[in-house]
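Module 6 notes. Inverse folding takes a fixed backbone as the condition and produces residue identities as the prediction. Think of it as a translation problem where the source language is geometry and the target language is the twenty amino acids. Below is one complete input and output pair. Work through it position by position during the lab.
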């Protein structure tokens, strides 16, 4: 479904790698949680695999299509919900969903059926013909989700999707994720809510300072820590350990650079 091999990304004028040789493979029919602290590299990785950001080294394929060589074919299999609601807010909700459906070649019958189901699910029917700029944060999140799913993508990617949703809508979104994978598709989402990841995900990946630390089930990752430690405790311990290792590596680089200049 999704294969990332030796992916490396460095932002201009920054010696520190935003992503450092990460590899990952997602399977059909799984919900995958992408975990890490702020600045760990989650959003950078998501923007690369959705074709938004370029990268220096590595390979990303979606449903067998290389994101660099077969960009359009790869993107046709992706539904993406950003964390910042990049929307055409002068459009109504209906106009936005129609726009997304047109891009992906969704028939009038299919788009109507799918949008009605999700509008009912998210209690958004009354606002569907209102301008998006009048929507609340949560409503914008919902219309983003509908737009991302209108073409029933094989890979559904969400960046912090639960932020701003009320409890009922958050529940419905999680049910949508489960249903999407039951149909043989894959869901990848980033989150800071470890309890949600623990209960919802088939597997999770933990990233810190641009490096992939662990990938596996929650139970497999818990087994790498001390006996009796919760998933939250193991996750936090990994973050601290990564910070120490990163600081030591940075110190060594500075000493080496200093020595080479004498």
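Target side of the pair, the amino acids:
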């Amino acid at each position: 479904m999704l294969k990332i091999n030796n992916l490396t990304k460095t932002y201009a004028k920054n010696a520190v790698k935003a992503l450092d040789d990460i590899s990952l493979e997602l399977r059909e029919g799984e919900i995958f949680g992408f975990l890490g602290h702020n600045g760990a590299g989650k959003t950078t990785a998501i923007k690369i695999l959705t074709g938004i950001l370029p990268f220096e080294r590595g390979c990303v394929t979606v449903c067998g299509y290389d994101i660099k060589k077969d960009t359009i074919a790869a993107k046709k299999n992706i539904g993406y919900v950003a964390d910042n609601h990049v929307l055409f807010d002068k459009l109504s909700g209906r106009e936005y969903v129609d726009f997304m459906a047109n891009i992906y070649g969704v028939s009038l019958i299919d788009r109507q059926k799918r949008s009605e189901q999700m509008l009912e699910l998210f209690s958004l029917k009354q606002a569907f013909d209102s301008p998006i700029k009048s929507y609340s944060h949560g409503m914008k999140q919902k219309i983003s989700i509908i737009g991302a799913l209108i073409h029933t993508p094989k890979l559904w990617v969400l960046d912090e999707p639960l932020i701003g949703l009320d409890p009922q809508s958050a529940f419905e979104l999680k049910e949508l994720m489960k249903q999407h994978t039951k149909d043989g598709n894959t869901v990848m989402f980033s989150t800071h809510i470890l309890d949600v990841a623990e209960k919802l995900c088939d597997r999770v990946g933990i990233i810190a300072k641009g490096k992939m630390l662990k990938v596996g089930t929650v139970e497999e990752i818990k087994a790498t820590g001390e006996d009796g430690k919760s998933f939250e405790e193991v996750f936090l311990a990994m973050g601290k350990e990564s910070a120490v290792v990163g600081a030591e590596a940075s110190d060594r680089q500075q000493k080496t650079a200093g020595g080479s200049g004498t």
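Reference fact for the lab report: Residues 231-260 form the longest helix (30 residues).
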